[in-house]
Request: fold
Amino acid sequence: MTINLRTAKTRSLFFIFLVILISCVLNRSEAGQKRLEALPIEGVLSISIPAFAQYPDINKNSSYVSYVLCNPRMRKRTDDENDLDMYQGCELKVSNITRLRATTLTVSTADAHGARWSPNGRFLAYVATKNGAQDLHIWDCVTHRSRIVTEAPIALVSYHTPIWTPDGEGLIVPIAAHTQGMSSSGDRSQSSQSNSVVVYRSEGGDSHSANDTDGPWSLKENSSALALVMIRNGATRILIPYIDPWGDYHLSPNGHFIAYAVATRFDGAASQQTLCDIKVLGLSDLITTTIAQNVPMAFGKGLSWSPNSRALAWITSGVHAKGIASIYYMQSGKTETYQYAGKFVGGTDNFSSPVDQTVAGATLWDSASRNVYVFDGAHEEGIWKISLSAGSMHVFFHLSGELVVGIARPLGLDILRTSSDNDFIVATINSWTKRTSFYRVNEATGRHSNVWAGNYKVTQLMSSIDGKSLLFFRERADESPDIWISPIDLKSSRRLTDIAPIFDNYQLGSARLISWSLHNGHMLQGALFLPAGYVAGKRYPLIVYPYPDRYKSNEINTFAGGESEAPTADNMQIFTTRGFAVLLPDAPYVRGYISQDLLDDVLGGVDKTIELGIADPARLGVMGHSDGGYTVLALIGRTHRFKAAVARSGYADEIAAAFWMDPDGAVFGLNIAVDMHLGKTLWAAPETWITNSPIFYFHHVTTPLLITQGTADTAVPPFLSDETFAALRSLGKTVQEVKYSGEGHYEDEWSYPHELDFVHRIIDWFDRFLCSSCTSHRA
Reply:
């Protein structure tokens, strides 16, 4: 066809057609590109995120995966005193994994968690909350229908899920303690209450030991009972009248016994190390036997039954615990112990472990109940193998510099699920490169081979019942976490979910690992998040985000540098897409010298970022939360280099922080001050307490400070932020305090309006003092 362009009308139509064609091509090209714009705050705070401590679960025939997502917009408020509020706005989803692109259906509208598949893989048990009460539900993957099993008030918190009986006819769940006529917390021996009068007493005694009434929190807080619920008719039978809701309770594989740990006391008034009694309940006669006492355990975690139900294993855990594995034999009543490690490496004696973001330790059994495998990243790097027949223990898997962070096994089972050739998958992270690897390990010989490695963070690694499939969350600095599924050979992994698609549309800041040397020769590292669209040679405003005694360089592959599963308010990409660089530095310290050590650590990282030509030395900011807020206040009292600072739920007075007391009489901050920061009591070293209390250096402050605080915070009470504000105001400093009514310690758990206001105020603060001409408000 020939187009005649001789007439004016024809030429006009041709050029209009050409403009439309070019516009379509350009629009299509732009549609395939990510936008270099600031992330919209409302969008970031409205994404659904993986629920805290809720593992995805895969059913028996590997056809469905269940997982829990939470939407901040559905959250009304968080009360730190009520752990049942943590799953407000959460919904339970099920994905069909046999399709190329998994479809997701919602099996409850909101406030659901605690999902667990039945032994036959057909039914999914979960808990849904309505009007503040938790009900037990069952979903049928054949009919796609859900029903309430019982309306008895369930009390499921933290990482716990309902436990199916082996025959699939019943579920073991915690129920509210008041169902038994119990109070929600035990009597406190040092207090009595009549009307509005509360009396606290101390009759003296050994200050180096502490029971429930003397420790940093009440061990009977939110206590509950353990019950057996029959799924056919909802009949409920109380098994244990009181359990620790944060402790372990495990049903033996034969369904005859329940093992559980109850925290009874702390090992000192200035300690968060709990000591537990381990008990076994016989379900036929409801007789309870205490098999161990005063075992150092972190929230009672670490119990495991042998597959034949004849032995129970556990390990010690916590900041004061040595690495000891114990095996209790049901028939003889004897206990064997094996020490696999010495001192806890995550504490504050000199420099803590270069990898402190570790998984809880565990004991796993082989299918024949002959060997126990122990891994505990808090103490050492490898896996130990205990041979019960030989009564011996040896290092089974160890690679220098590689920390074991997971062993693939089915959710809720403590048995190694191996493939047909007796291999299982171990996940490690390199302590220096932060690179994650998967190793295929032979159960019998310990021979291993690397089957996958990448600059990603992998969490919640688990396997299917048959050991053929792996399931895990995968993320990196600029990729939000999603569930991935893979055969055990990891040759064809695929993403199963698209939890936060909003991030797919924007250019995000990439992360770079940097390192620097301290004056004493110690090498530190930092996770440096570059601004989105980073241009080499251009200097950018820098926000430093430290936390004491934490190696935050380990977050280099954590999405957005946040410490939650998928950060909302704590999302560093909010800043990178607004033209800021963000540094997460390692910040170890020696007890008693915390303030000076933090200054050296942080400024070393700042200087390195400036040396690299990335940070503008005239536009430095610092931000921190909780102990990180303390760090901010310590820094601005000792250096004038920061031009803006944000202290979130922080404190400046070690004395006030150590001795504030909650209404139960518990003293949470004493452990932080003595056992973690300073190493000595106030009366043994008053000058150390003063030197490390930033409030005594406030007259040197020149950095404008923004303080944010929740009024219902029970970890750092609001009066500590008031003290900081009042002191700086009296000195004529530039300071602003913002309080959020009814909110607790963690901003990611705040109500949506407060979270939105909080983020906008921080952005505006850094814009005002660091980057008034930045692209912070583009979009």
Summary: DSSP finds ten helices and 44 strands in the chain. The longest helix spans residues 8-31.
